[in-house]
Amino acid sequence: MKLVVNGEEHVVEVPVETSLAEVLRDELGLTGTKVACNEGHCGACTVQVDGMPVLSCITLAHTVSGRVTTIEGLRDHPLVAAFVRADAVQCGFCTPGQVVSAAALVAASPEPTVDEIRHAMAGNICRCGTYPKIEEAILHWRD
Ligand code: FES
Ligand code: FES
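# FE2/S2 (inorganic) cluster complex -> structure
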């Protein structure tokens, strides 16, 4: 199968049951995408497909025809610095998924309200409880 990830085309040969997260991490070495629950509950594995947040742990790789963006493809996004400024990271395990979801939000709505942020980020769980700081980072992502 062919997969376009962060603007690069890749050809991978994997069993049909392989998830997008497995392809990204195990075949392409893009380990910035984290897998926590592996059941579609936590958002740690969020990537974008054609700009929309997608849970890569429950997405079969062979069903993906759009362009995939992972946290590696967002390394220069202003949100990364905004998360650091707001101190929105503790253990950091959820952070790649948080940034990927937030990047999709600000692309669609560059000045999101708190309600929009809470709605867009509802699928991204942080067991360290950094939610207020994540909100602050997104509110001030362009500062
Ligand atoms: S690891 Fe995919 S939703 Fe939790
Ligand atoms: S920073 Fe630890 S889970 Fe979010």
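# post-check
The longest strand covers residues 2-5.
The helical segments are 20-27, 78-85, 95-108, 114-120, 131-139.
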